[in-house]
Recover the amino acids of this structure.
């Protein structure tokens, strides 16, 4: 029998994530959970996995909503030395079946009861362990498998080794201003995706910063979680959640709110201005990818739109594209062979690296540059123009048979003059050939706007065209 890869050893969970004073409260998921209690819960779950047949080098899929059970299951899987795949609980039954068939885990941890509630921050649920007859032991040395967001097409399977996760935790530990022991981090980002998982949950456990999941991800629910304790507090989420908080007409005084940090997409200037004015706190930004985690940051919003590459990262820009230096490909299974070449991952994000300041400016997806009749059009410019129109709350612009725009508005009366307003602000070749008004833009499970043209058209079929 071949020797098990060393990275399947679960000692890193005890030495890094569960180590420390047992009396210290490290999590708040509906109730305070001490480090000692977390260790007991993880050990009990590990014994349940062993009884179900999970061994070192085995495979486990965790399909749980944000919950105490979700956190305990993934930690127990790693402690057992298994490869853990995280599946978002919001996927449909069909999508889950397809994902399980694709990943072939030996066990799946899932909720006993059906869960619902789009704005719930966490759930109080029981879990069950389901054996998968067709499941297989791990075929790669990765400790974690995740699916890419799928905002522009089919998801890819991404693998992270223990070494990769520890390197990212080290980057967070070296970021001046990121939550530390004696502070709290209110996590709005999903804990089964890279920002909420590593930047929120795992960093909190490793650093001693208390991780809090709010009961509800409404304005009132988030602010209640922030106000619950008086330790210095950071909110970690995505730009759409910052925009939600910025809508509060008279925000309460929260002197211990240090900042909100967002990642996943670009932050609109209007959102930044309204948030910082309303709360008297910084709105910082992060750039990262599921493939590697955090890449560059501006934690207090002082260098916007520029970002400082995180300690230990290798970043360069070639032909306008951001490249990352990695020791190995992050992809498991079939992937575009041009994405990882000679130690460099092509991110497909456009950007610029200022040699004088060292700041990285991310412009968005590289495929946002399209040609119309031989003329170059930046779809980001079209989006920004639409978002600046009175009554338009959000916009996504894609290239299909021509430029198509999908927008949301404050009220139906905005529809009438939308095309005319666009005509006064954009040259004819930049204007969308079709303009769809939706009640809500489709988003990925991580909160990013979907940019797949067919998926957007499907969402628009039930809405009246503008």
């Amino acid at each position: 029998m071949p020797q098990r890869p060393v990275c399947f050893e679960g000692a890193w969970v005890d030495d890094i994530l569960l180590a420390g004073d047992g009396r210290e409260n490290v999590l708040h998921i509906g109730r305070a959970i001490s480090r000692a209690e977390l260790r007991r819960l993880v050990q009990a779950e590990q014994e349940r996995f062993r009884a179900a047949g999970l061994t070192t080098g085995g495979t486990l899929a965790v399909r749980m909503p944000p919950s105490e059970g979700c956190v305990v299951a993934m930690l127990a899987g790693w402690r057992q030395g298994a490869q853990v795949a995280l599946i978002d609980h919001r996927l449909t039954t069909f999508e889950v079946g397809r994902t399980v068939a694709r990943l072939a885990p030996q066990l799946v941890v899932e909720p006993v009861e059906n869960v619902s509630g789009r704005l719930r921050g966490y759930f109080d649920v029981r879990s069950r362990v389901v054996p998968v007859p067709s499941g297989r032991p791990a075929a790669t040395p990765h400790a974690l498998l995740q699916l890419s967001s799928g905002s522009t097409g089919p998801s890819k399977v991404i693998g992270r080794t223990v070494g990769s996760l520890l390197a990212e935790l080290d980057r967070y530990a070296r970021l001046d201003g990121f939550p530390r022991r004696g502070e709290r981090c209110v996590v709005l980002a999903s804990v089964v995706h890279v920002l909420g998982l590593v930047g929120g949950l795992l960093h909190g456990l490793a650093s001693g910063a208390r991780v809090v999941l709010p009961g509800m991800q409404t304005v009132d629910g988030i602010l209640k979680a922030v106000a619950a304790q008086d330790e210095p507090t950071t909110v970690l989420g995505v730009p759409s959640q910052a925009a939600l908080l910025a809508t509060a007409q008279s925000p309460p005084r929260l002197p211990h709110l240090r900042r909100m940090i967002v990642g996943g997409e670009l932050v609109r200037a209007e959102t930044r201005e309204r948030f910082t004015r309303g709360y008297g706190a910084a709105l910082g930004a992060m750039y990262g990818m599921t493939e590697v985690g955090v890449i560059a940051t501006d934690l207090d919003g002082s260098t916007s739109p520029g970002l400082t590459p995180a300690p230990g990262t290798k970043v360069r820009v070639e032909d306008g594209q951001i490249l990352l230096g990695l020791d190995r490909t992050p992809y498991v299974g079939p992937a575009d062979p041009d994405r990882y070449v000679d130690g460099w991952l092509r991110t497909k994000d456009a950007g610029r690296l200022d040699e004088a300041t060292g700041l990285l400016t991310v412009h968005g997806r590289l495929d946002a540059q399209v040609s119309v009749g031989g003329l170059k059009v930046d779809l980001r410019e079209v989006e920004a123009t639409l978002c600046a129109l009175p009554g338009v709350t959000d916009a996504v612009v894609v290239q299909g048979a021509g430029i198509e725009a999908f927008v949301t508005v404050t009220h139906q009366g905005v529809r009438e003059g939308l095309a005319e307003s666009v005509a006064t602000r954009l040259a004819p070749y930049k204007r969308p050939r079709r303009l769809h008004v939706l009640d809500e833009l489709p988003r990925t499970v991580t909160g990013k706007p979907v940019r797949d043209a067919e998926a957007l058209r499907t969402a628009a079929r039930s809405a009246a065209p503008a």
In short: Confidence is low (pLDDT under 50) at residues 1-7. The chain is about 25% helix and 25% strand. Residues 35-51 form the longest helix (17 residues).
